[in-house]
Write a structure and sequence with these properties.
- This protein has a domain of 92 residues.
- Helix content is 71%, strand content 0%.
- The protein has five helices and no strands.
Length: 140
């Protein structure tokens, strides 16, 4: 491939990675609860970072830099899902989530109903959601 084609590919990857990272940042600000924000922080941010690393790899084209970029990408792929899992689990255990936004609650049986006892904490901090107030545990 010619240098111009590789530079064009690097530019496209850089722009796409920047757009995905920007969308992840907007999602962190706009989404309503921790679990939604966790997806915005993990999924598009990792893809955006990998696209930026790919753009750097295409533009630099040296073995030393490629090895470093490969290590950075592997570290991102290994740590981001683990971080998102731990943030989601901590939010669930402390009750800092909106249960009305959950489609399926797979941890309800494992936690022994503990999360249901903390519904009042989540409602006081987040405010009543559309389904709250109709039989919720917090009342006033």
């Amino acid at each position: 491939m010619t240098s111009a084609v590789l530079d064009g590919l690097a530019a496209v990857c850089l722009v796409l990675g920047g757009v995905l990272s920007l969308l992840a940042g907007i999602g962190l600000v706009r989404f309503p609860d921790v679990l939604s924000r966790m997806h915005a922080a993990a999924k598009p941010q990792i893809l955006g970072s990998l696209l930026i690393l790919l753009a750097l790899a295409v533009s630099l084209r040296r073995v030393g830099e490629l090895a470093t970029l490969l290590l950075i990408g592997a570290f991102q792929l290994a740590t981001a899902p683990l971080t998102a899992q731990m943030i989601g689990r901590a939010a669930y255990r402390t009750g800092r989530l909106r249960r009305d936004l959950l489609v399926v609650d797979e941890l309800a049986d494992r936690e022994g109903g503990r999360a249901g006892q903390e519904d009042g904490l989540a409602e006081r901090e987040l405010g009543p959601g559309p389904a709250r107030g109709q039989g919720g545990t917090a009342g006033g």
